[in-house]
Amino acid sequence: MIDRLEDLPVVVIGAGPVGLAAAAHLHQRGLPFTVLEAGDGPAAAVAQWGHVRLFSPWRYNVDQAAAGLLRDAGWVEPDPEILPTGGELVADYLRPLADLPAMKPAIRYGTRVVAVTRLGLDRLRTAGREATPFLLRLASGTDLRARAVIDASGTWTTPNVLGAAGIPAHGETTAAGVVTHALPDVLGADRDRFAGKRVLVVGAGHSAANTLLALAALAEQAPDTKVGWAIRSTSPARTYGGETADALPARGALGTRLREHVEAGRIDLVTGFSVHQLAPAADGAVTVSDGTRTLTVDRIVSATGFRPDHSITTELRLALDPIMGSTRALAPLIDPNQHSCGTVPPHGVDELAHPEPGYYAIGAKSYGRAPTFLMATGYEQARSVVAALAGDWTAARDVQLELPETGVCNSNPILHDNTITASGGGCCGTPAADTTTTSGGRGLATGISGGLLAAPLPLVGTSTSPGTDSAGGCCGTSTSPGTDSAGGCCGN
Ligand SMILES: Cc1cc2nc3c(=O)[nH]c(=O)nc-3n(C[C@H](O)[C@H](O)[C@H](O)COP(=O)(O)OP(=O)(O)OC[C@H]3O[C@@H](n4cnc5c(N)ncnc54)[C@H](O)[C@@H]3O)c2cc1C
C-alpha cells in the first residue's frame, strides 16, 4: 500500500552544517524528519578538514533555528568574533546540536543514500507524480519513503580530478595511491606521508595555499621535504592577492608568505602547467607531465576543487545548469566566470526548485562546481526551503541574507591564529585580489577580481600518444620540486 504523502517524513541527506540546520528548521516547524548520514558521526566531511581554520567567524557559522534549540538546552555560545577550526565547529556546535533530544533520534549514521526516485515511477512517468512518495535506496539495500527530500550531501567526497580537461589525466587512476585530495593534515595526522618526500601541490586556490604553507613549515622540521607547486595560470599573482596593498593585513600576509617561500626557492613554482599524464617512476615515485615538461615527485596533493555528485538522482527530473551543475536559476548568481568580489543575492526556495516537486539540493551541493559557497548562505536556503515545505510561502520567499559588508570570505591560515581578518574576498578555493563592499550589507563577497576563472590559460601542448610524452619532454625542460632531486626525471 502506498503511504499518504503527508504522513511521511521529510528526509534530509547529510548531517553536515546545512543538513543539520534543515533538521533544526523542520523540528521548529513541527514537520517529521529523518536525517541520513553516511559518516559515523555528525559533520563527517567537516571532521576530515578539522585541522583547517575557517575564514568566517562564529557569528556566520551558526544557524539561528539551531542556535535557538541549543540555547534552550543551556549551550554556551562561542565568541562570535573568533574563527574556529573545522574541529571546533564540530565539537562546539554541530555535535551538541546533533545530540539534542529533538534531533538525535531522527539521525541515522552509517547510512549512505545511493539512489533517490519516486515510488514505482521512473523519470518518464508524469501522471500522479507529485502525489507519489519519494523512494530512497540505502547502501544496505533498504528502501525508505519520504514526503520530500532535502539533499545536503555536500561535495567533499567528489573532488575534481588532476586532469586539466576535467577528465582524469592519463595514468591518474593508476597513480591514485600517491595522490592525496585537498587539505591533508600535513603537520599532524598525515605528517609521515609527507615528511622527507618530494611533494607537488596542484591548484591555485585557498586550499592549495593552505597546504603549501603547511608543507613549507614541515620542510623546516624535516629538511629533506621538497615542495613543488603547479598552477595552470602563467602567474601566481591571484593566489598571492594584494599583499601589502591588500586591505586585509592577514590575507596580504598569507600571499606575502607564499611569495617569499617561492622566491627563496623553498617552494618550487611551475606556472602554465596543465596536468596531462602521470606515470610510475622508480622507488614508488611518479612523473607528472604537461606534455612538455615532466616533474618527478613522491606525492601529489590535488587541490583542484570539488564537484557535485548527481548520480544518486538520475531518476529525478532535475534542471541542472549545464556549466555549474546548480539549478539554472542559481547559476548566474554564483558563476565564477563572471563574479568578482560582487554579491550573491539572497536566494531561497524559488532559485533552488527543480521540475521535480519536493526535491531540493541545498548547502555546498547546491552551488555545483562554483567554489564560493558559505554556510550562512546554506542556512538561509534551509530556512526558506523548510518554510515552503510547511506551506508558509510568505516566509519562504522572504529571503534574508545578512552578511557583513566585508570580512567573511577570507582566511588567515596562520597556524593557531584565530583572530578575525578584516574584509571580504576569496572564498574557499578563491584567493582574493581585491576587496569590495557589498551594498546594503546584504549579499556576500565572492570570487576574485575579474572573476575567478576569467584569466585565460595557456594552450595545452599535449602529446597525442600517451606514454611517449614523459620521456620525450623530460630532459630539455624537466623541473623537479625541491632543489636536489637529480635534475627531475632525467636523473632518475
Ligand atoms: C577546508 C574548507 C574550509 C571552509 N571554510 C568555510 C568557512 O570558513 N566559512 C564558510 O561559510 N564555509 C566554509 N567552507 C565551505 C562550506 O561551508 C563547507 O564545505 C560546509 O561544510 C558545507 O556544508 P554542507 O552541509 O553543505 O556539506 P558537508 O559539510 O560536506 O556535509 C555533507 C554531509 O553529507 C554526508 N553525505 C555525503 N553523501 C552522502 C550520501 N550519499 N548519503 C548520506 N550522507 C551523505 C557527508 O558525510 C557529510 O557529512 C569551507 C569548506 C572547506 C572544504
UniProtKB/TrEMBL annotation:
<dbReference type="Pfam" id="PF13738">
    <property type="entry name" value="Pyr_redox_3"/>
</dbReference>
<feature type="compositionally biased region" description="Low complexity">
    <location>
        <begin position="468"/>
        <end position="484"/>
    </location>
</feature>
<feature type="region of interest" description="Disordered">
    <location>
        <begin position="468"/>
        <end position="492"/>
    </location>
</feature>
<keyword id="KW-0560">Oxidoreductase</keyword>
<protein>
    <submittedName>
        <fullName>Flavoprotein</fullName>
    </submittedName>
</protein>
<dbReference type="InterPro" id="IPR050982">
    <property type="entry name" value="Auxin_biosynth/cation_transpt"/>
</dbReference>
<dbReference type="InterPro" id="IPR036188">
    <property type="entry name" value="FAD/NAD-bd_sf"/>
</dbReference>
